[in-house]
Amino acid sequence: MRLLPAVLVVLSCNPAVAAEPAPRPRPIQRAAVESSLPSVAGRIRQFAFDGDATTYFVSERNASKTDHFTIRFDTPVKLKSVAVLTGRPNGDDALAAGSLELSADGTTFESAATFDKGKASATPKAGTVRAIRVRSTEDLKHPLVVREITLDSNPRVTTFRYPVEFTIDVTDAPELREWTENAVRVCEREYPMICDLLASDGFQPPTQIRLAMKASYDGVAMAGGNRITGSVKYFKSHPNDIGAMVHETAHCVQNYRGRGLPGWLVEGIADYVRFWKFEPGTAGRVNPQRAAFDASYRTTAAFLAYVTNRYDAQLVTKLNAMLRAGRYDAGVWKTLTGKTVEELNKEWRESLR
Where, if anywhere, are coiled coils annotated (predicted)? Predict the structure, then answer.
């Protein structure tokens, strides 16, 4: 639960003068970034819109005049100004012949400015914008490098606080390309939520995750390191189960290195991300006769949700930090809630009746 900043209201001695209402926070808009150019390793697309000029996108190959780098907004925004900086920090690969283009519908683009010494900026006078595009106007002899895009708009467009890029491998099932591309777009959009929930001091979540669809894999999906494997057979017959990929993305962010960690809690946290944050209300009922805190997956997730709501809103974040640091033991429940896990389990089961 996020706490709003305290507001000090000073009441006037003059009853005819009303106190000014607290200003409403500006609404926030989200964006997605795409390109016809694949990213070179370590220089992903979202780096171009993360508010950090030391990180930047670099294309894997030289750009042609048919290539593009595009940011799309969820809904149109009133764009007050936009500025694009290209090229590496030392000045190399700056875009000399290029166009900064805007689109009201996300499909048809019109030039708003041209690049000069790697920079372009525009101040639209009227209307709304759905997408911004950077395009070379000639074939380049170097990669496209987009260092930072800066926007002033209403509503404000949030930058990528946890930049990430998924790459896919659908060699075993080319017919699943569209499904897989949609799944990774969902996972990229949910990434800030996952990273916030599973944050800990000093930890940096992965910026690149690879998703491969395999015909030889008989399970549903699994994750190891920064790699996710999905079952071709399963997702062909369960195309709506994108939540399974969100679950595996949570495993990539968990990034536990210790040995002997309780598997029921590791899986329970990932399912808590899925069923209580990504698709709440879909976990189904838990049978009170069979409920157990260590039953794993969605049952453990339901237990975590109960304890979170009853005792500590930051419970999952704290448990995750302990697991990541290798400091988890059964005594942490008493420390965090004042009760043992067995006592909490009994209380939870009673609540289910």
Answer: none
